[in-house]
């Protein structure tokens, strides 16, 4: 089962390429588990292992963090929880802004006001 559209996968690969890897990319895809607070905003795929993605990960425990996620694990969850790709999501800010807002809110947020506040230095 595929978690991304072809366009999303291409952009994730592009962002993960060696020349782009250390940039502060906007999230390309938002995955979530309906009925839970689990959310992932992903920016790139590891070019050496495309089953590993980087982004902002929130398991719904109040401690969202930047890091890697094993896509095989998410696909495994498909059988129990149906990981969903929010096809309406458009990442408008760099991932660092989403991370600052998530730390303040203790959860990933796409609320424009929260994200605007996160643009300001703390």
Topology:
Elements: H1 6-16, E1 29-32, E2 39-46, E3 49-58, E4 65-70, H2 71-77, E5 84-85, H3 95-105, H4 112-119
Antiparallel strand pairs: 1-2, 1-5, 2-3, 3-4
Helix pairs in contact: 3-4
Structural account:
Residues 8-24 have a biased composition (Basic and acidic residues). InterPro entries: DUF2958 (IPR021341). Residues 1-24 are annotated as: Disordered. This is DUF2958 domain-containing protein. This protein is α+β, with helices and mostly antiparallel strands and 122 residues long. It has one domain (6-119). The protein is built from four helices and five strands; from the N terminus they run αββββαβαα. It has helices spanning 6-16, 71-77, 95-105, 112-119, and strands at 29-32, 39-46, 49-58, 65-70, 84-85. A five-stranded antiparallel β-sheet has the order 4-3-2-1-5. A hairpin with a 6-residue loop joins strand 1 (29-32) and strand 2. Helix 3 (95-105) crosses helix 4 (112-119). The radius of gyration is 14 Å and the shape is globular.
How many DSSP helices? 4
Counting copies of identical and different chains, the oligomeric state is single chain
Structural class by SSE content: alpha+beta
Radius of gyration: 14 Å
Instruction: Report how far the terminal alpha carbons are from each other.
Output: 41 Å
What's the overall geometry? globular
Query: Number of domains in the coordinates?
Result: 1
Taking the sheet with the most strands, its summary is: 5 strands, antiparallel
Give the topology string: H per helix, E per strand: HEEEEHEHH
What is the β-strand count?
5
Please state roughly what percent of the residues sit in beta strands, choosing from under 5%, 5-15%, 15-25%, 25-35%, 35-45% or over 45%.
15-25%
Question: If strands are numbered along the chain, what order do they take across the biggest sheet?
Answer: 4-3-2-1-5
The poorly predicted ranges are none
**pLDDT averaged residue by residue:** 92
Helix content: 25-40%
